[in-house]
Amino acid sequence: AHSEQTYIMVKPDGVQRGLVGEIISRFEKKGFTLKGLQMCICDKAKAEEHYRDLEGKPFFPNLVDYICSGPVVCMVWEGTDVVKAGRNLIGVTNPTDAAPGTIRGDFGVEVGRNLVHGSDSVENGEREISLWFGGTDTVEWEPTMTPWIKE
Ligand code: DAT
Ligand code: MG
């Protein structure tokens, strides 16, 4: 099976609401491996770069302000098809439409407070990981339980 990495970030509302542990726990229990973890307060330039594909959208200025409005928790998760599976754990963009059982479906009510980011492709994952993590800030390791999760 195909192993890859994704960039997952608990947004400022998720941090302020005390949902960091809950969000990490869902990725851990699913069977993915945490390869990088750090906290920061994002500046405007970095937020604009992170969301550069959305520049020009009417909500873009609000989105940038929101992401910069408090601490975020930045993570690299690795595993089989983790980009797609991670987005399934997170749920669709608007929490109103997100299925119960997903993070946004269980904890969110508005699109502008949707708690967590997940990369939408392997390529964007690589771009986002290099934007948020310096090369030395991730950890090479393999959990001993891997054979019980992956064939
Ligand atoms: P996602 O975060 O599900 O990948 P996206 O990449 O299309 O969604 O958009 C990035 C963020 O921008 C999203 O998490 C919340 C915000 N956003 C998207 N569409 C929006 C809209 N129609 N109104 C307000 N905010 C929106
Ligand atoms: Mg996106």
Summarize the entry for a quick read:
With 151 residues, the protein is of the alpha+beta class. The protein has 7 helices and 4 strands.
What does this structure look like?
It contains seven helices and four strands. The protein has a four-stranded antiparallel beta sheet. With 151 residues, the chain is of the alpha+beta class. Bound molecules: 2'-deoxyadenosine-5'-diphosphate and magnesium ion (MG). The site of 2'-deoxyadenosine-5'-diphosphate has 9 residues, from loops. 2'-deoxyadenosine-5'-diphosphate (DAT) binds at residues 54, 59, 63, 93, 111-112, 114, 117, 120.
SSE map:
Layout: E1 3-10, H1 12-16, H2 20-30, E2 33-40, H3 44-50, H4 60-67, E3 72-80, H5 82-90, H6 103-107, E4 116-118, H7 122-132
Antiparallel strand pairs: 1-3, 1-4, 2-3
Attribute tags:
single chain, 151 residues, alpha+beta, 7 helices, 4 strands, 19% strand, globular, binds magnesium ion, nucleoside diphosphate kinase activity, Nucleoside diphosphate kinase
Rounded Rg: 15 Å
What do the pLDDT scores average to? 97
Bound molecules: 2'-deoxyadenosine-5'-diphosphate, magnesium ion
Distance between the termini: 8 Å
Query: How much helix, percentage-wise, in residues?
Result: 25-40%
Low-confidence stretches: none
- Assembly state: single chain
| Order of helix and strand elements from N to C terminus | EHHEHHEHHEH
- Please give the number of β-strands: 4
| Percent range for β-strand residues | 15-25%
* Count of DSSP H/I helices: 7
* Structural class category: alpha+beta
- What's the arrangement of strands in the largest beta sheet? 2-3-1-4
Please give the largest β-sheet: 4 strands, antiparallel
